[in-house]
TrEMBL record:
Organism of this sequence: Aestuariibaculum sediminum
Domain Cyclic nucleotide-binding, residue spans: 12-91
PROSITE patterns reported for this sequence: CNMP_BINDING_3 (PS50042), HTH_CRP_2 (PS51063)
One GO CC term, this protein: cytosol
A Pfam family hit: cNMP_binding
Gene3D superfamilies (UniProt xref): Jelly Rolls (2.60.120.10)
Protein name: Crp/Fnr family transcriptional regulator
Superkingdom in the source lineage: Bacteria
Protein keywords: DNA-binding, Transcription, Transcription regulation
Cross-referenced PANTHER family: CRP FAMILY TRANSCRIPTIONAL REGULATORY PROTEIN, HTH-TYPE TRANSCRIPTIONAL REGULATOR ARCR
GO molecular function annotations of the record: DNA binding; DNA-binding transcription factor activity
Length: 226
């Protein structure tokens, strides 16, 4: 696993959810969404941050040509809308449920400040998490702008390997058990599902990977695309 920030391997929901704090428990409720429901739109007021109890959420925006650009797909335990903590007044992105049973824990900005004020070490780690998220997004957007589809896929596989991969001694392969569908991956690398399927089959024919719906196995080191 790569040395990434504190929260990458931590379920933030278990740490931050207000129902775990006596002072906030009584007034705390979860929001529930079905597939394609929006949690918020671009230009909505930014007054909350959100934790995912279960399900998946897509973050993105629409370009000048009306094309959707997917910034991230987040799963159980992850935080989004965090720029409200930094003083963002309106949303610069949309957040949409892409699961039929998504449960969200909303946290008002004032409540978040109170939770952070009570624990300076925790507060520092929250800001490090936000910094990491920005760097990760900037890198991915550069890939979308300047790299071809196959390069974007290889870079994404490398990222997934760092986040979800583990070595299997029996097969001498790296196994990536990830939360994404092929549609998710296609959206994140800015291509179509048919093109993604072609690229995955090419990498399989080149003996770099094996894959199924739930996991990807790296048979050898991915080609250098830097």
């Amino acid at each position: 696993m790569s040395p990434i920030w504190f929260f990458e391997d931590v379920n933030l929901f278990k740490i931050l959810c207000p129902h775990k704090f006596k002072a906030y428990k009584a007034n705390h409720e979860f929001d529930h969404y079905k597939k394609s429901d929006y949690i918020y739109f671009e230009d909505d007021q930014a007054s909350k941050v959100y934790l995912i109890e279960k399900g998946k959420v897509k973050l993105g925006y629409y370009g000048e040509d009306g094309e959707e650009v997917v910034k991230a797909i987040l799963t159980k335990g992850e935080l989004f809308g965090e720029t409200a903590i930094l003083g963002e007044s309106v949303r610069q992105e949309f957040a949409q449920s892409i699961d039929n049973a998504t449960s969200i824990c909303p946290i008002g900005v004032d409540t978040m400040y109170n939770l952070m004020r009570d624990n300076q070490t925790f507060s520092f780690k929250i800001y490090k998490f936000i910094g990491f998220r920005f760097k990760k997004l900037e890198r991915r957007l550069k890939l979308l702008m300047f790299k071809d589809c196959k390069t974007r896929l290889i870079e994404f596989l490398g990222d997934m390997c760092a986040e979800y991969g583990y070595d299997c001694k029996e097969t001498e392969q790296t196994i990536i058990k990830h939360p994404y569908t092929q549609k998710d991956i296609a959206s994140l690398i800015g291509t179509s599902r048919p093109t993604l399927n072609i690229l995955l089959k090419e990498l399989k024919e080149e003996q770099y990977i094996d894959f199924n719906r739930k996991e990807i196995r790296l048979r050898k080191k991915l080609p250098n695309v830097s």
